[in-house]
Specification:
about 190 residues, alpha/beta, four-stranded parallel sheet, 4 strands
Length: about 190
Amino acid sequence: MTSATSAHLSGESLGGWVVAWTAAHHPDRVEKLVLNTPGNIADKPEVMARMRDSTMAAVLDPSDETVRRRVEFLFHHKEMATDELVNLRRRIHSRPGFVRAITNTLVLQDSEVRKDFAWDPSWVSRVKAPTLLLWTSHDPTGGLDEAELLLGWLPDARLHVIDDAGHWPQWEKVAEFLDVHRTWLLTGTDPS
């Protein structure tokens, strides 16, 4: 049961990195943790370049083609990049100030900037909250080898792999994603 000063945290992609950092630096504030496809745990430069380049291409030229390519990157099943989703992302990418906002976010794809915050056992091992690593079989940002790294660094972690999904299991496998979250956060067990 969470108290008024603590919470369960779940983060996807960069959000996983943020909630893990929060749990490591404020362990008394986090009850349970879900790291959903946090990606690039090993700080692979080619992954950082692919993320930065595909994102900036879609933001600087929010055409159907560039935005669709960026959205498709998130899915194992490319057909899930529907016209509606692509057009929604195009509207977001076209908003005033978005180029600056995403440029500021993408600074974390620079290995020199990233080094002070990179995934490392020195801080990851300070996460005390029971943690569920929610991975997928086809995440383009990091494979199961990276999940294994985190399993070795986190004091209390379990791995749940959603099969047949990419970086956004919350879109590709909605029922399983929600069931795993609900069960983990309510009971601290993995339903698999």
